[in-house]
Design a protein that fits this description.
The complex is a heterodimer of chains A (92) and B (315). By secondary structure, chain A is α+β, with helices and mostly antiparallel strands. Helices cover 12% and strands 25% of the residues of chain A. The chains are: A alpha+beta (92), B alpha/beta (315). The interface between A and B is large, with 23 and 49 residues.
């Protein structure tokens, strides 16, 4: 199933400048793998070579950070939106 | 009522108020802890006092010394108040795109402001402050993002107050900035009752991340990693500016005049309430609405306010 994936500014050059792309998969991990297959420049940027989320990357399904759901095994379905964002300092 | 010897004694022991009228689930109560009642106007008064007094006790802060801190406002304001009373100079590194009231409040208590680029958000303020700390080793750099006295203020203050006033709490919801509130209160409440769930609410990073050159410039507060934040949190959810403002307005409908981050926290609490059968959700309101009047949050058209909020740091 294709889902929309929103890319942060810093990753857009690896996807031909696109802000949002679509990728197939039934879990976050599958979607990110499909994305890396289509845009080799993204490979290793979001999911490290040993298969875990990059330390400074947060991935959300709709509004929820997948680290607190089932991480890369978090299911996605049609109409879900996946967002990739760098971790930044919060205001304080 | 007691007569207090110092404004510093007025920090903490904030009231909680029931706003269950806003709960989407009739079987879930929602209580808001009003940190805007602190004398400097925010939850950060607790952190400011805690960090300064710890530094004094450790001997790393001595009379006449200058302090340095990156802050989008509230910590700086709390520190300015504490420093004014204790006689320290304070330099605050402040992103240029905070609401003007924050800047003015810093000036009320005599802090010196150094601006960091607004496009870099709090990341930019942290980076600049760290560079300045290296240039000025004679200054005291409390660094709230890495200072254990930050979560400790909540572990010894905010958390026990919530447990004292509401031992039936099932869920705790707060905004995620330095992560100090979530770490300190979350750990305390889970020690009392391991079934308590801790939910973090984040503002969307949005335009603030455009200043990042690559992902390795990302930032996780050292206290979050040092104190096992990822293991402590049960859920982390993003609330967008529009929803934050809508909930800020709903709060005003029940008489609570709170800052925009409280609207975001309430939106998170509502999601939480809708996702469980029954329970009691305690939410931290980090500050009151005063510092956000210039954003028009309560009075202007929603879409206008939303645009303004996107360009402003409100957490």
């Amino acid at each position: 199933m294709p889902v929309a994936v929103h890319l942060p500014t810093v990753l857009r050059p690896h996807a031909g400048g696109a802000k949002t792309v679509t990728a197939e998969g039934s879990t976050v991990g599958e979607v990110l793998d499909a994305l890396a297959a289509e845009f080799p420049g993204l490979s290793g940027q979001v999911v490290s070579d040993d298969g875990v989320l990059h330390r400074f990357v947060n991935v959300y399904v709709n509004d929820d950070d997948v680290r607190y759901l089932s991480s890369l095994d978090t299911p996605v379905k049609d109409d879900d939106e996946v967002s990739i964002l760098p971790a930044v300092a919060g205001g304080a | 009522m007691t007569v207090h010897g110092s404004v510093l004694d007025l920090i903490g022991n904030t009231p909680m108020v029931d706003v269950s009228a806003l709960s989407p689930n009739p079987d879930v109560r929602i209580l808001v802890k009003l940190e805007g009642q602190n004398p400097g106007g925010s939850v950060k008064d607790r952190v400011a006092r805690s960090m300064v007094e710890q530094a004094e006790a450790d001997g790393v802060l001595t009379p006449g010394q200058t302090l340095l801190e990156p802050s989008s406002g509230n910590t700086g304001i709390g520190l300015a108040l504490v420093c004014r009373l204790k006689g320290y100079e304070l330099v605050v590194v402040l992103p240029s795109n905070v609401s003007p009231e924050r800047r003015q409040l810093l000036e009320v208590w005599g802090a010196r402001i150094v601006e960091s680029p607004g496009s870099e958000g709090s990341n930019g303020a942290v980076r600049l402050a760290r560079a300045m700390a290296e240039e000025h080793p004679e200054w005291c750099f409390l660094y709230q993002y890495a200072n254990p006295a930050n979560p400790r203020a909540h572990y010894t203050g905010t958390g026990p107050e919530i447990w004292r006033d509401c031992p039936e709490v099932t869920h705790f919801v707060a905004g995620l900035g330095t992560s100090g509130t979530l770490l300190g209160v979350g750990r305390y409440l889970k020690e009392q009752n391991p079934a308590v769930q801790v939910w973090a609410v984040e503002p969307p990073a949005g335009e603030m991340v455009d200043g990042l050159r690559n992902l390795d410039d990302g930032y996780i507060p050292p206290i979050f990693e040092d104190q096992g934040g990822a293991q402590l949190l049960d859920r982390k959810t993003v609330v967008k500016p529009l929803e934050s403002i809508e909930w800020t307005r709903r709060l005003a409908d029940v008489g609570v005049f709170a800052g925009i981050s409280t609207g975001a926290a309430l939106a998170g609490a509502a999601r939480c309430a809708a996702s469980v059968e029954r329970g009691v959700v305690v939410v931290v309101s980090a500050d009151g609405g005063w510092k956000y009047l210039s954003t028009g949050a309560w009075t202007d058209d929603l879409d206008v306010v939303e645009k303004r909020a996107r360009a402003t740091i409100y957490f």
